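thought: fold this chain, then report.
action: predict
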Amino acid sequence: MHMEACAGQASSRHIVLVHGACLGGWSWFKVATWLRSAGHRVSTPDLAASGVDPRPLREVPTFRDYTKPLLDLLESLPPDEKVVLVGHSLGGVNIALACELFPEKIAAAVFVAAFMPDHRSPPSYVLEKFVEGRTLDWMDTEFKPQDPEGKLPTSMLFGPLVTRAKFFQLCSPEDLTLGRSLMRVSSMFVDDLRLQPPYTEARYGSVRKAYVVFKDDHAIVEGFQRWMLHNYPVDEVMEIDGADHMALLSTPTELARCLADIAVKYAA
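observation:
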């Protein structure tokens, strides 16, 4: 019923789904399928050195370089087209940068269990608060310098233990196998983001925002998601019970419904 109700109204909505660190556009395959069947246009770009993007991480020295495939997509849109931009996990910072650079192209920004910068602090702030808060036991995550001089961002790769216990704990064994086989080395780019000025109230701050809370997330725990909402209130908050960090795979229908509702409401 819900899909039929959306389908008649949804033809002009373009939803861009942005993945998190170590993942790729593939992580949205269930959500993208549902949204397309409901009549939406969906893009799932691979960020640099992610998914099937051919670049190795060492060729992606800055967060802006990492975000470039998304920025290129937005730049290529027709002048009158606006998209609903969705970011998962670290992808929240990618969509925040996109809002800062292309606010006129974005009907709404949706943060799903995602890091959400404010317009008062450098974009690294929420990442640094997350690490300081020690709400995530990183377990067998590997952090490594990429070069002796430390000019390149520290690499990050989630190990099998943390992936199963903190990210995919409510996913099927098959989805866990898929995720483990497709993960790539990535970075949080904290040092580079620390050097950037805050995103501005006039640009990033002008974009309408929604947040989808994953209530059983063991990676970015609900308490930290709520702290970010207190730090930087948004227009609308939705929540999904029984959603782990990879709700994209574990509760995709519930997530897709939230995103469709937001798209219909804000991209009228």
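thought: worth noting. The chain has a mean pLDDT of 95.
final: tokens above.
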